[in-house]
Request: fold
Amino acid sequence: MAKEMCKPKAIEDITVEDLKAHRWCFYQNDEEGFDAFEHVIPDNHPDFSEHVIELELSEFKFANGKSCFGFYDGSEAFNIIAGDQWYSFWYGIAEPNAEDLSRLKSFVVSNNLELPVVVQAKWSGTSKTFSGIQYINPNGETIEKTI
Reply:
């Protein structure tokens, strides 16, 4: 089992259980075909480094006291992991559309969660508050579309 956990893992396959069990850093290895935009390695991998950007366990604490877990990507994005689905509060330079807002709102309502949510990354302590989906507009301003 330890050998299995030591292998690089596709970011899309990371679970909350993985994030609770290990620290994970982004991993690039051209010879083996691993791209840092797609793969991470756990803290029991020989190439793990706390000096490389990590994919961090994050706790989302909602206004009504409920919480969920997900990850922080070491940049700006915080994502809730719910089964095989991700719910992002950060869209970068892509403006979220009505379907994106509806999808997040549906998740919040169906789980009886109340915004705003305060999220904190476990290792770096990075914290942010969201009342909807944030993105950067063409003028470089951070905009939040509340749900």
Summary: The mean pLDDT is 93. The longest helix spans residues 98-110. Residues 70 and 82 are 8 Å apart (CA to CA).
